[in-house]
């Protein structure tokens, strides 16, 4: 592999920073859970929860799992995994979205 | 088979088989070749179990009335047949046995990238298999191998949770094998072995690994969700609890459709090797065959909805899935045409592996083409859940995957064991399997088209003649499957010693001794030709006629 960065040492400060960020987002999740955001906009509850979750997962993958310091090949594999998850979600949700509000027979 | 005289030497050569003989040396081995053999014994056992269930199914269906077993028992029998054959035989078959044995040798490596993970994968498989045996002893499951809720999550009284846990665990062995292969192919190729010099067997396994790694976690999470719903009444799939049963079908088939490519792609890799070497020609359109494996792996993930045309899946989603399903036929056709073109004007020898390869070409074509019937939105309404589907996937899974596995087992048997199997018996059994297979499954296409539903233990009397034909074929097929078990076992003790390269084939595995030494090669192989380079056959012949002690 072109860049051999297996032994990259991450400064302890970065770990602490990521840990604190994760804690802040956890606190945010708990805080938001006390309010029902549905009356502002229907799906807002889910949007907030999933956004927080995605940010936290990204931090864990990039720093705790060292993907940020890994070779390009490893990064490609990680992105491919996420891409495949998106395929599953997108096609499945496309089915649900097309079930109601669309004509159920063509040519009518 | 080559007929060079084989001299015997007094000096005993150290091979991976005779390097040590203790049980411990086998159970704790890190040698990919021994792990391949451990898998061979394990999955052969499950093939027999699955075969016994198949026998029970065919016995029951000889008569129109359900007189051998009750409907409930029959549900359990066909479910167990499906689960055993798919999760405990077909998925590990070629990758875990032939792939484990050959992949590192084909790459010129000493072992896979993670030998300990490789051994762990076998143990994980055995734990899953053991739990599944427990399921079997406790009465098995009756949901069909597809585990559709809400029947499986709420109503079934069988061992669904235990079976789910067994499949969950077994999935990890598949992931570990895929991971190991992928890293091995990326990092452990011999000097000079560039990507486009790789044998097509390796390309096929690369594509398979991709599916194993990306798909298997989804089936794991799906059966886990099913177990959660069943145990703790958490509403995921059951409408009564606020879930959606079609969501299960989406998640299940997101893995289980690509899973059929886990079963067929390695078989295609085997066929590429056999056809090239038995026709003594470079595979026609090497790059196309290599990339078609990857195309199948990728497109295979986009077609799962064709299992759900008659569910409440949106018609528009159905349209998209139908079109992409047609598209996935293209890479399969590329392979089939290119193999045929490889044989054209080749110097073909009709040894047992080649007979299997030719059988594969015919049977896989029938299996693949009937798949197109089923991906047609309208026609599928007529054929869905009938014996047409049963016939279609047996043509792909038996006519494709198992025929390829058997062809590969014959082709590499001299390399694996260092012994020659009796060629005449090999050809006879291959012919019996081909005939028995067609007699078993061809009538099922007609049955399905006439309206015989799958998973029924009783049927209208008009169907009996076709069912009797099918059961008669199954008994012939069984003989064909039992024969190799007998003569392979015989050959280990009485077979003639195999030369290093009995087929005068090209490929790194034929340059080492038969059976290989523990470290595969006593030297570091350097590759400076393309795969299937038959220009220097005479040199290979001389290098390969080495003697085994």
General description of the model:
The complex is a heterodimer of chains A (108) and B (549). Chain A is mostly helical and 108 residues long. In chain A, 64% of the residues lie in helices and 0% in strands. Chain A has helices spanning 12-33, 44-64, 72-97. The N and C termini of chain A lie far apart (58 Å). Chain B has 549 residues and is an all-alpha fold. Chain B has a single domain (28-544), classed as Cytochrome C Oxidase, Chain A, CATH 1.20.210.10. Chain B has helices at 23-27, 32-60, 71-107, 115-137, 151-155, 160-187, 200-232, 245-279, 286-299, 315-343, 352-375, 377-383, 387-417, 423-450, 464-494, 537-544. The longest helix of chain B is centred in the N-terminal third of the chain and has 37 residues, at 71-107. Chain B is globular, with a radius of gyration of 23 Å. Chain B starts with 22 loop residues before the first helix and ends in a 5-residue tail after the last helix. The interface between A and B is medium-sized, with 19 and 22 residues.
Uncertain segments of chain A are: none
The string of secondary-structure elements of chain A, in order, is HHH
Write down the domain tally of chain B.
Answer: 1
Give the count of structural domains of chain A. 2
Largest interface: A-B, 19 and 22 residues
Radius of gyration of chain B over all CA atoms, rounded: 23 Å
Largest sheet of chain A: none
Number of helical segments with 4 or more residues of chain A:
3
CATH top level of chain B is Mainly Alpha
Distance between the termini of chain A: 58 Å
Rounded average pLDDT of chain B: 93
Q: DSSP strand (E) fraction of chain A?
A: under 5%
